[in-house]
Automatic annotation (TrEMBL):
The keyword RNA-binding does not apply. InterPro entries: NPHP3-like_N, P-loop_NTPase. It holds the Pfam family NPHP3_N. This is Nephrocystin 3-like N-terminal domain-containing protein. Residues 68-244 form the Nephrocystin 3-like N-terminal domain. PANTHER family: AMELOGENIN (PTHR10039), NACHT DOMAIN-CONTAINING PROTEIN (PTHR10039:SF5). The lineage of its organism: Eukaryota, Fungi, Dikarya, Ascomycota, Pezizomycotina. It comes from Colletotrichum fructicola (strain Nara gc5) (Anthracnose fungus). It comes from the Eukaryota. Keywords: Repeat.
Length: 592
C-alpha cells in the first residue's frame, strides 16, 4: 500500500480521468487494508476473551516424566496401542485409566509435548498440520479449571489460535459484532462454537484432543462422556482422555478397544526410577558393591510393593534416601521399608504424625490455607502472614487497621508517607529461608514450584500440594473443619488479609526481584475470591476494612490507570466490587 501511495503522489497523469482512476484504485487498496486490519483485530480480541490466566496452570504443575518412563505408550506391539488408534481407519475414544498415583496425568503431559506423538499421528494427519489441544481438569483449582466452560474455552483457544482462518465461521456472532466481546462467554455459546468446528467438512488442521482428570470434573459426568464420544465421531478430531476407573467412566469407555491401565504397565518404569535414584547415592553404591544380591533384592521388593503406583515409589525413595544420608545398612533400610504402608492414605497419615510438635501448627496452617486457596500459594503470602501475626502480637485489634489498609493501597492512590519497605525487604531477604522451612516442616506433603510468568500470574516461588491424592486424603478425613478450629481467624480472611498486605508491596518487589512487573489485578481477584468463599459469620468480625477496600477499588480511574486493565476487565472488577461490598455490609450488619 505504501508503494501505491508513493506512485499516486508522484503521478504524472496527464488527465483528470487517469488521476481519478488511480485514486479509485488506491481507495480500494486502502479499504482492503483497513478491513484486514479490522479482521485481525477482531480475531485477536476473540482469542483474548477465550484465554484465561489458569489455562495451563494445572498442566504446568504436573511433573515431567522420569527419563525413559512411559516408553511403552509409543510401542506398536502394545495391545490397544496409540499407534493403531491414530491410524486413519481407526476411531473412538482412547481411554487412559489406572490407580490413583499411577502416573496418568504425567503420561498425558508427556503425550501433549512429545514429538513421537506427532510422528505416530503422521499417517492420519497427512499434509495438514496437527493441533494438540489439551485440558487438565483440577478439582482443587479455580472454577474454570474444573468446569465445562473451562474445558471448552481451553480447547477452543488452542484450536483457533492455530487455525485462525476458521474463526469467522466458528465464532460468527462475535466476529460479525465486535461489541459482543464485552459480554463474557457462556456455556451455550461455547458449545455452539465447538459444534461448528465438528461440522466443518475440511478443517485446515487435524486435532488431537487430550483431556486429563475426568474424575476431577465438577459437572455432570454423563454429559461429559457423551460430549467426548460425540467429538470423537469427527474424522478431523481424535479424543484421548484419562481418569480413574470410576464406574461411570468404565461404563462409558471400558468396553472400547482403545484403553490402557497405567498401573499394569509401569513395573519396568518403577525399576528404572528406583535404580536411577538409589544408584546415584554414594552410600547405596557402597552397599551395592559389598552385597549386590541384597541390594538388587531390596530394589525389587520396592518395585513389587508399589503395585504400579509411581507416586508411592516417589515417597518411598525419599524416605530411603534419608536413611542413606544417615548411613543405614541394608538391614535397617529393609526395616524402614517394612514400616512404610503400601496404602497411600495410611502413608499420608504416617507423614502427618511424623511432623514434630513444634512445627505442627505452622504445617497444619499451610495445609489449611492451601485447601482454601484451591491453588498454589506464593511464598510471599506466607511472609505477609508472618507480618500480620507480628502486628496482632503488638495489640492491633482484628486482622486490619487503618495503617494496614493505607499501606496496601497507597501505591495505587498516591497516599503520602507510604512505606512498603518492611514486607518488600523481607520478601527479598527471607523468601528462600521461608520456602525451605515450610517444605521441610510439612514432611514432603507440599512442594515448591515457580509459576510460569504470564501477564496475570504472580511471579516468584509458590508452594502447593505434592499430588492430588494428598488433597483427597485431607478432604476425606475432614481436615478442613478440624484444622480451622486451630486458627484464631477464618483461614479465608487470613488469606485475604495477607494478599491485601502483599498488594501494597508489589511495586517494591517488582523493582528488586522481577523483570516483569507483578499485576495487582491477579492479587485483587484472589482477595475477592477468599471474601466470596467466606460465610457471613466469618466476615462479620473483620469485614469493615474489606468494605473500605472494595469501595476504594471501585474507582474507574484507579482500575484503568494503575491496574493496566482493558475495559472488559474493568467492568468485571467493578461488578465484583459491588457484589462483594453488599456481602461485606451484610456481614457487618450481622453484628448488630
Amino acid at each position: 500500500m505504501a508503494k501505491d501511495l508513493q506512485n499516486l503522489l508522484h503521478s504524472n497523469a496527464k488527465s483528470e480521468e487517469a488521476c481519478a482512476e488511480k485514486f479509485g484504485s488506491f481507495a480500494v487498496t486502502l479499504s482492503k487494508f483497513a478491513d484486514e486490519a479490522t479482521n485481525r483485530g477482531t480475531i485477536r480480541t476473540i482469542l483474548t476473551t477465550l484465554n484465561f490466566s489458569q489455562i495451563k496452570a494445572r498442566q504446568n504443575e504436573i511433573p515431567k516424566a522420569h527419563q525413559n518412563t512411559f516408553e511403552w505408550i509409543f510401542n506398536e506391539s502394545l495391545e490397544g496401542n496409540l499407534s493403531k488408534w491414530l491410524h486413519p481407519c481407526s476411531d473412538g475414544v482412547f481411554w487412559i485409566t489406572g490407580k490413583p498415583g499411577s502416573g496418568k496425568s504425567t503420561l498425558m503431559k508427556l503425550l501433549s509435548g512429545d514429538q513421537r506423538t506427532l510422528l505416530l499421528a503422521k499417517s492420519w494427519v497427512g499434509p495438514k498440520p496437527l493441533v494438540v489441544a489439551s485440558h487438565f481438569f483440577w478439582n482443587a483449582g479455580k472454577p474454570l479449571q474444573k468446569s465445562q466452560e473451562g474445558l471448552l474455552r481451553t480447547l477452543l483457544f488452542q484450536i483457533l489460535v492455530q487455525c485462525p482462518e476458521v474463526i469467522p465461521e466458528v465464532c460468527s456472532e462475535r466476529y460479525a459484532n465486535p461489541l459482543q466481546d464485552i459480554e463474557p462467554w457462556g456455556v451455550e455459546e461455547l458449545s455452539r462454537a465447538f459444534s461448528r468446528i465438528q461440522q466443518i467438512q475440511e478443517l485446515p488442521c487435524r486435532v488431537l484432543m487430550l483431556v486429563d482428570g475426568l474424575d476431577e470434573y465438577s459437572g455432570d459426568v454423563k454429559e461429559l462422556t457423551t460430549f467426548l464420544h460425540a467429538v470423537a465421531k469427527s474424522s478431523e478430531i481424535r479424543v484421548c482422555c484419562a481418569s480413574r476407573a470410576w464406574p461411570e467412566f468404565s461404563k462409558a469407555f471400558g468396553s472400547g478397544t482403545w484403553k490402557v491401565q497405567v498401573h499394569q504397565l509401569t513395573k519396568a518404569d518403577i525399576r528404572s526410577y528406583i535404580e536411577d535414584h538409589l544408584g546415584q547415592h554414594d552410600a547405596f553404591a557402597k552397599l551395592h558393591s559389598k552385597d549386590e544380591s541384597s541390594t538388587k533384592a531390596f530394589m525389587e521388593t520396592i518395585a513389587e510393593k508399589a503395585e504400579g503406583v509411581l507416586f508411592w515409589v516417589f515417597l518411598v525413595i525419599k524416605s530411603i534416601l534419608r536413611g542413606l544420608d544417615n548411613l543405614d545398612d541394608i538391614g535397617t533400610l529393609r526395616r524402614r521399608l517394612d514400616e512404610l504402608p503400601s496404602d497411600l492414605n495410611a502413608f499420608f497419615e504416617r507423614m502427618m504424625d511424623s511432623i514434630e510438635n513444634v512445627y505442627k501448627q505452622e504445617a497444619h496452617t499451610a495445609f489449611l490455607l492451601l485447601l482454601c486457596a484451591k491453588a498454589p500459594l506464593p511464598v510471599d503470602v506466607l511472609l505477609a502472614l508472618d507480618q500480620l501475626d507480628r502486628r496482632n502480637k503488638k495489640g492491633i485489634p482484628g486482622l486490619f487497621d487503618a495503617g494496614l489498609f493505607n499501606e496496601a493501597l497507597a501505591p495505587y492512590l498516591n497516599i503520602p508517607n507510604f512505606d512498603a519497605k518492611s514486607l518488600a525487604d523481607r520478601t527479598t531477604n527471607e523468601g528462600l529461608q521461608k520456602q525451605d522451612q515450610i517444605v521441610a516442616r510439612c514432611r514432603d506433603l507440599i512442594q515448591l514450584s515457580r509459576a510460569v510468568k504470564t501477564s496475570r500470574a504472580y511471579a516468584g516461588p509458590h508452594i502447593g500440594f505434592i499430588h492430588r491424592t494428598v488433597v483427597d486424603f485431607l478432604e476425606e478425613r475432614g481436615a478442613l473443619k478440624r484444622l480451622e478450629s486451630l486458627l484464631p481467624h477464618s483461614p479465608r480472611l487470613l488469606l485475604a488479609a495477607a494478599y491485601t498486605l502483599l498488594l501494597g508491596s508489589l511495586q517494591r518487589i517488582d523493582e528488586e526481584n522481577s523483570k516483569v512487573p507483578n499485576d495487582p489485578f491477579e492479587i485483587i481477584l484472589r482477595i475477592f475470591y477468599q471474601i466470596q468463599e467466606a460465610t457471613t459469620e466469618e466476615v462479620a468480625a473483620d469485614g469493615v476494612l474489606f468494605c473500605r477496600l472494595t469501595r476504594t477499588i471501585d474507582k474507574r480511574e484507579m482500575v484503568l490507570l494503575r491496574g493496566g486493565l482493558s475495559e472488559r476487565e474493568a467492568e468485571q472488577l467493578l461488578s465484583l466490587c459491588a457484589n462483594l461490598e453488599a456481602k461485606l455490609i451484610s456481614g457487618c450488619e450481622f453484628l448488630d
